[in-house]
Amino acid sequence: MPAHANGGVGKRIAYYRSVMRPKMTQQQLADAACVALGTIRKIERGERGVSDATLEALAAALGIDPSRLRVDRGPVHTRVHEAMPALSAAIATYDIPDDRPTRPLDELRTAVAEAARWRLAAQYTRIVRELPGLLAELARAYHKAPAHERHGPATLLVTAYRAADAVAFKFGAHDLSARLVELMRWATHDADDPLLTASVAYVRTETFFAARAHAAGLRALEQAIDSAPAANTSPAIAARGALHMRAAVIAGRARDAAASEAHLDEARALADQVSEAIYHGTAFGPDSVRIHEVSVAVSLGDDHVGRALTVARDWRPPADLPAERRSGFYIELARAQLWSGLADHAFESLKVARQIAPQHTREHPWVREDAATLRRLKRADSETLTQFAEWCAAT
Prior knowledge:
mainly alpha; 20 helices; 3% strand
């Protein structure tokens, strides 16, 4: 990958970091961009160049276009949309892989784990840069393995497909997302892991959200709950609880308040039995359920919206939760605040969401809708609001 000689790039990074509100430390930037702290320090001091991948990750963490950091300042098209065809090509050949070399399973496991971390951190440009090649390699590993040894490659395929799906779904490529979900379901047969199957059922709900088939999505989740393993271990408790969490939200979208409350109660009871953590790729625990309580309130709308404000009154998501989930909380809260006439509070929530996970926030349709509404209301500082609306392409 090309590396940019520093030539002012480090100074620009330091500048944009310093003008964030609140100011972002080097450690916070390193965490948000998934880059080593030492690397940040050397870049800002001008002691090393910056690769395209690192520059894009830093720009995403700062919530700015990469062109603002580049030396030539030329216009930059989103790397994600440009990479979608390569991602489509990689999954189109899942059953007819080429015969190129394949790394050992342990090395592939490390690469997939890194992709999963990028997904949770909403580092979508990194995913689309690395996933096409990794998916092709995993397909080779799967087909080269004897039938009785396909458990490992199949499990890795499911996790890698999920990382790719996060990008496809967030960037509006819903047909590609649906295809990835079907490939996840296909690979779970050889993975032979009921908890992994439950996690795929959780992800499959995206297909129903995209189609606005909320009642059907609720039925699918309730079937998955009935098929989930008994809740007698922490991972099994989390798998069942995550399904209830998701069911509560989609029931809210279906305007089924009774079902929504029932599933949320089940999720809350299960969350009280485990610690907040990542289980089979999904965050679950008391904090995640509280975030979903806000989601449910917004999904139900009308008289339920005040509940979202009540939850957020004395509580904020802890910093150790995945960035995508934390930013989602503020995006949902902003909508509740906007509906409640708290326009200035809504804009502040959107800015916090951007600071936590810029790529997730920028591509979220609600952010564009709400930023456009705020701009019409002109309740916040007009220049700052205009810049935000232009950043997320609000119309």
